[in-house]
Amino acid sequence: MGDKGNPRIAVGYGCLLMLISFIVFYFSIESIIGVIIGIVFIDVGIQGVHISNQTRVYSLLPEARNRLNTVFMSFSFLGTAAGSAYGLFLWKLGGWHAVAIGCAVLALLALTVYAVTYKSSRP
User: Fold this and answer.
1) CA-based nearest residue to 114, from 5, 4, 19
2) Does the pLDDT of residue 117 top 90, yes or no?
3) 70 Cβ neighbours under 8 A, 6+ residues apart
4) What confidence score (pLDDT) does residue 121 get?
């Protein structure tokens, strides 16, 4: 989707899949099938967002791909580390349901930012 058209659209679908995965996780505290479905949704969503954003970054300045990738992956690592700390905080606060709700709120926030910036970036 990102290669054939606008990779930004794939980012929106990825954020939506992440939101759906946390909803599935919330209701799947005792269901291994639900957890597996949630894992598939979150993995496809995160990978879609990551690859689409990499595609967008690489298109900025093709001759500087190595430098851009270093910056992109450094911030990706920082975001992943912050997300892990946030998840641990939520787990301590309220366990499985707190993590699912807290992460769903972040996914919803990402979708909101996406929607607002998508409207303003269209010609």
Assistant:
1) 19
2) no
3) none
4) 62
